[in-house]
Amino acid sequence: MNKILISLLSFAFINSCTPEDSGFTFIVENELGMDRAFETVELTSAFLGVDNLNNYGIQDFETKEVLVSQGVDTDKNQYADVLLFQPRMKANSKRKFELIEIHHSKRPKSKSVCFSRFVPERMDDYAWENDKVAFRVFGPKAQKMAEENQEGGTLSSGVDAWLKRVEYPIINKWYRKELKTEGSYHEDDGEGLDNFHVGPSRGVGGLAIKKDSTYYFSKNFSNWQHIASGPIRTSFYLEYDDWDAKGALIKETKLISLDKGSNLSRFEVSLEGTEHIAAGITLHEKDGVVMDNEAQGWLSYWQPHGDSELGSAIVAPPSVFKDIETYETDQVDLSNAYAHLQVKDGKVIYYAGFGWKKSGQFKSQKEWEDYLSEFALKLSKPLKVE
To answer: InterPro entries per the record (predicted)?
Structure first.
């Protein structure tokens, strides 16, 4: 497998010793009647008029507070061309910010990090996390082992959920626990655990294509490319070998990202061979409750899970959200709830994630569904920048 690795793109800001005003100011506006936080504002180099954002940051114009920010190199030339930050916004408010040059030693530190990496020491997982949730998907070695009936293989393009209940990163620690100690990430030692069974199901946000009454899936990802990890966002690409959906040849790649404070990963899927997809969430034992709000663009499943409860969901813009289906079958792991989504110009974007009651983030099914409604509302009315 051709393994492409781009270095972590939380850039060192090296040119100045103290914050220096660049002279560029801009306004962020919240048009909703609610306070907002943990929403990412993206500023491109074209908007800011700076080709290389490696040594720039964001400062509140009035208070001169320097905010946590992250540069991302989207065109892979080693220079940041996007600058990310998350302003706290009061209801129906505007705030003025300025672009500043700043030395890395003067940059504010974040207590948490959005992180992802390829995991060759456990076959070939790709795992990602933020301060709320963690996920993983499975690669070609795990697929080959499964197809050859070797123990430990996994044949699935479903998305696995790691149920964490701490804000700090756990991916490296849990893999080390599983592979290097007598402990296991299947046991909760206070940080959470992996007790979310995926199998061939869609897990939390796996993709399918429906032909007649049958759902077709890709196999494991075949290639990966890390883009960024940092205080605001982690992102990466996944490629899949071409696959067949009842005679239709499907070409599929994914750009997946996860931002600080969000329970939902963003899936930007590029496709050839289909004008629609189904984003799915597993029904496990079929003992939970499927709910949806097509007007707002979300599908949810709330279920008993171990000694707690778990909500999982798909959220998409209502303009691409066609309908939902609760697909139940006696075939093991193939019962899923699906959001049917329209592919436009070869691309579809949706969000998928979960909320674990034991983490303390959500106390009930209602709180989880209220979160989805608020997430969808903010998605429809993003923070404005001018």
So the answer is: DUF4861
